[in-house]
Amino acid sequence: GAVVSQHPSWVICKSGTSVKIECRSLDFQATTMFWYRQFPKQSLMLMATSNEGSKATYEQGVEKDKFLINHASLTLSTLTVTSAHPEDSSFYICSGELEDEQYFGPGTRLTVT
Amino acid sequence: GNSVTQMEGPVTLSEEAFLTINCTYTATGYPSLFWYVQYPGEGLQLLLKATKADDKGSNKGFEATYRKETTSFHLEKGSVQVSDSAVYFCALSDRQGAQKLVFGQGTRLTINP
After folding, report:
1. Looking at the DSSP assignment, which residues form a beta bridge with residue B93?
2. Which residues of B are less than 8 Å from A4 in CB distance?
3. B42, B98, B103: residue with CB nearest A44
4. What is the pLDDT of residues A60-76, one digit of tens each?
5. Cα–Cα distances in Å, from B50 out to B33, B34, B93?
6. Secondary structure letter of residue B72 according to DSSP
7. What distances in angstroms separate CA A39 from CA A44, A69, A93, one per listed residue?
8. Which among A113, A111, A105 is positioned nearest to A7, based on CA atoms?
9. Confidence band (pLDDT; 50, 70, 90) for B20?
């Protein structure tokens, strides 16, 4: 149980375009979901906390207008990278919280050309 | 702020060898401590956790003890298997549960038969 999926698993987009990444909790309801970013050989960095039905809480230094997060239902949160640039290329990971534990998706590799 | 430092990898061992992956932390208050494991192509999974000083977390033959005096949470296993090959992340949360996790940089472990 407690499975989280992400879609797509990888995406390539052109500079200046927007890309949406979906995070779904498949067998549980996640009031809270988290979005992380991971650079090669580096740690996961928390970008934002997403609460169903309310605005996301962004970590310091994360541009909320660039990384739009929507948590419209208890099983789906989306991250939209707007006007993507090559420096946004990274591995994006989401997680859903259930009973004080986080369950992680497999991640989405974004490459901006 | 809170931070986690792990020993750098990659770590390569032979099957049945003893494993230690060092993890130290900096935090205010009394954080909860976690080890997560990421197998190839999968999301992070909770391996074990400890929520207060001197607690020992254990799972699948892995152990880690919460040492407040040395601010450490080293991961150990007495006899590793090829199937233990993965990336291991140490993490802390300054809350009781796994909210707002701060991760170490990860240690890639490879076990050779």
Report:
1. B32
2. 43
3. B103
4. 999 999 999 999 899 99
5. 5, 7, 11
6. B
7. 7, 20, 11
8. A105
9. very high
**Residue A33 clears pLDDT 90, i.e. is over it:** yes
Best of A33, A35, A100 to disrupt the B interface (most B CBs within 10 Å) is A100
Interface membership of A100 toward B (CB under 8 Å): yes
> Is the CB of residue A97 less than 8 Å from the CB of residue B98?
yes
**The residue to which tokens 């989401």 are assigned:** A94
Question: Tokens at residue A49, please?
Answer: 């906390």
Contact criterion met (CB below 8 Å) for B10 and B107: yes
Percent of chain A at pLDDT exceeding 70: 100
Closest-CA distance of chain A to residue B103, Å? 6
Q: What are phi and psi of A105, to 5 degrees?
A: -80, 170
